[in-house]
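Lay summary. Proteins are chains of building blocks that fold into shapes, and those shapes determine what they do. In this project we predict the shape from the chain. Here is one chain we studied, written as its sequence of building blocks.
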Amino acid sequence: MIRIRPATPSDVPLIRSLIHELATYEREPHSVQITEEQLLADGFSLSPCYECIIAEDDGVPAGSALFFPVYSTWRGRGLHLEDLFVRPQFRGRGIGKALLSRVASIAIEKGCTKLQWEVLDWNQPAINFYHSIGAHMLDQWRIMRVTGDALEALGATSEVSA
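And here is the predicted shape, written in a compact code that computers can read:
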């Protein structure tokens, strides 16, 4: 039986493990830098940066969805789904759809007008799944990112006197 539940602070080691499993699937296991301490502080403080739900199949952790609020100047409130992951041995049982459906219902409960996420261009099974539930790809948009030294350098330029 599939059960979807909110993550709790005691789930932080599991969340970290699922993040690493997803990164391995996405061919980037070396990129995971987040610690359990940071996940605990960022997700379970008075002002959490993210929410996470856990899927269990007969009581065994099968996957998770991690998401956070975003804001659109055109549409207002939204949710960004950062990670949706189902462990390989549990795929094909409807767990991914159950997780995504629960995130969508949370978005509706919060008054959101959109739910968005990213997908790797080579992940055709995920793309096919997302299309099957009515999602559409925004081909004209590209993600821009600044990290590490470039982020530090850009932030340093903000020191302009008022």
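What the prediction tells us: Helices lie at 12-25, 36-43, 95-109, 124-132, 148-156.
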